[in-house]
Amino acid sequence: MIQNRIFTITMGLFLFLKTNINGQSDDLLLTNHSITNKISEVYNNFYETDDTGEIEEILSFLKKNHDLKLHDTIKSKALYLESVYNIVSLHQYEEADKLLDQSFEIASKTNDYLLKGLIYNDKAVVNGYLTQNYVTSKILLEKAIEAFKQVNNRRKLIESYYNLTLALIDLKRYRESINAGKTCLELIKEENDDELLIYYKRIFYLIASNYINLKEFDKAQEYIEILEGHLNNSNFDNKVLTYAWFHRANADLDISKGDYKSAVDNLNKSILYWRQLNTENKKSINESYERELSLEKAVRKEKEVVIGDQRKILFISFLAIVLLFGLIFLLVFFFKRNRKKNQQIVELNNELNDLIVNLKDNNLILEERQREIESLLKLNEQSLFSRILKISTYNDTIGKISDDIDSYMDSSPSASGYLMTVRKKLKALISEDELWEDFKIQFEKIRPEFFNRLKEVAPNLSVNDLKHCTYIVSNLKSKEVAQLINVSPRSVETTRYRIKKKLGLEKEESLYDLLAEL
Fold it and tell me: How many whole angstroms separate alpha carbon 327 and alpha carbon 412?
């Protein structure tokens, strides 16, 4: 009888230790009974903090237990969390839209206005990515606002009003966008939350941009000055973003007023701040990655130590059965020590999983920001070159007018002294050498070393040839260039043919491809 009890206890210990060695105890973290509370906990945590760190664990459990029956309220929340994970972590917007519809279908049977508001708000965001139908986005956001008012959730009201401000800008309904932005500002002031400052400062830029579009420059200047007052009142990331928006708003205002020189200066400053933020974000990612690797190495080392101890414990346990009954107590002692270490491993694994999910989220956010920055840089470069071409065109036109006056005066000796005075003034306005040098300086800001490399390939190109090379590398068609410099398209084609010959190109070879590579 005693031998049977010893055998039963020993086998039970053996099976329990074997389960821990194989790392199967993790499945006990969530159960069919605890999943309901866990879904509610993660859902509440998400709409308060927008943190998706714990969602992956819930989704993994639900996939393994797909037959699990959940109450409609919990099921709608679970579907919503899955849609959020598809939006934030996976960027699978079509799948997210389907999940939001399923969640809303269930939520519509309840009076859960908060969940309805969350769904309306997120569907508006997803709609912007999928269809760019901002009319639909506006309707969804207005429904979200009404739902959040029902539960007096100011934080989500702020988010919806912010998204509505952006949607109305896309619809070119600038006055309505201003009203939505001002409502958002009032809510942020009442909430007094430092985390909402990023919305707070961006809205000043959006309102100023709306006033610029409405040609109400004084009011735009007023909001730009308010934004300027917040330049130093934030942490590094928010400060850099605020500076970038501030200079972009000034650039937009300068462009509307026709002050292109100041606009270029502000655009360049804005670009520099976006680049600075991008550099700091990359540095932060590298530091986070190094911490992750260090923690992963520590966890692996700890696992190896624990597994080695467990194997020793098994050996001692089986030896104790053969030798003495008293050694069973020694086996229990080792087992308890081992269980404590297993718990430490579980905790370390959970921390590591959270850190990895956060790192993935940060990587996706930074990649999206980088794409936005690259798009802005490209737009700024195109805008700068377009303005330079316009200035060049204005000067060419002045030159042609001056030439027309010369021709008229040559054919009409009795021309008035007033025309002679006008001609002298027009001649004084333009200097071909100064114009070309200024054009080269501005163009080389966009394409450094272009002219130097071009001269290495073909040193015998004239100033007019060099100008046409800039038109070609900017992908302007012959008709566009002809309209720009007031000549016939055939004249432009003749000039391009002459340039090809000077560059030693065959008839079938592309002049654009050669210039684009310089």
Answer: 126
Mean pLDDT of 338-342: 85
Check: CB of residue 25 under 8 Å from CB of residue 51. Answer: no
Tokens 């000067």 identify what position? 395
- Cβ atoms < 10 Å from Cβ of 211: 25
- 3-state helix/strand/coil string of 192-224: CCHHHHHHHHHHHHHHHHHHHHCCCHHHHHHHH
Helix (H) or strand (E) holding 416: none
**Residue 463, Cα to own-chain centre: how many angstroms?**
42
- The pTM (predicted TM-score) of the whole model is 0.49
Angle of the 260-323 helix axis to the 2-21 helix axis, nearest 10: 160
Half-sphere exposure of 304 (CA within 13 A, CB side): 6
Task: Give the integer Cα–Cα distance in Å for 334 and 492.
Answer: 90
- Non-local (6+) Cβ contacts of 89 within 8 A are 52, 55, 56, 357, 360, 361, 364
Angle at the Cα of 291 from the Cα atoms of 287 and 294, rounded to 5 degrees: 140
> E strand or H helix at 425, and its extent?
helix 417-429
Query: How far, in Å, CA of 441 to CA of 447, rounded?
Result: 10
Q: What is the DSSP annotation of 60-90?
A: HHHHHTTT----HHHHHHHHHHHHHHIIIII
Distance CA 231, CA 273 (A): 12
Answer whether 103's CB lies under 8 Å from 115's CB: yes
The answer to whether the CB of 177 falls within 8 A of the CB of 206 is: yes
Distance CA 515, CA 33 (A): 68
Residues 6 or more apart whose Cβ sits within 8 Å of residue 62 = 35, 68, 78
CB 469 within 8 A of CB 512: no
pLDDT, one tens digit per residue, over 450-463 is 888 888 888 888 88
Tokens of 382: 């195109």
CA–CA gap between residue 316 and residue 337 (Å, rounded): 14
Q: How far is CA 435 from the centre of its chain?
A: 39
Q: Answer positive or negative: Cα dihedral of 234, 238, 239, 242.
A: negative
Q: How many CB atoms lie within 10 A of CB 309?
A: 14
Return the closest-CA partner of residue 313 out of 14, 26, 34.
14
Q: pLDDT digit string (tens) for 55-114?
A: 877 887 888 777 788 888 888 888 888 888 888 777 888 888 998 998 888 888 878 889
DSSP string for residues in 135-166: HHHHHHHHHHHHHHHHHT-HHHHHHHHHHHHH
Closest-CA residue to 443 (of 471, 483, 479, 484): 471
Taking each continuous run of H as one helix and of E as one strand, the counts in the chain are 21, 0
Cβ neighbors of 275 (< 8 A, separation 6 or more) are 373
Q: Averaged over 418-434, what is the pLDDT?
A: 69
Q: What DSSP state is assigned to residue 26? A: G
Angle, CA of 17, 19 and 22, to the nearest 5°: 110
Contact 253, 208 (CB under 8 A): yes
- Residue 173's identity, in one-letter code, is R
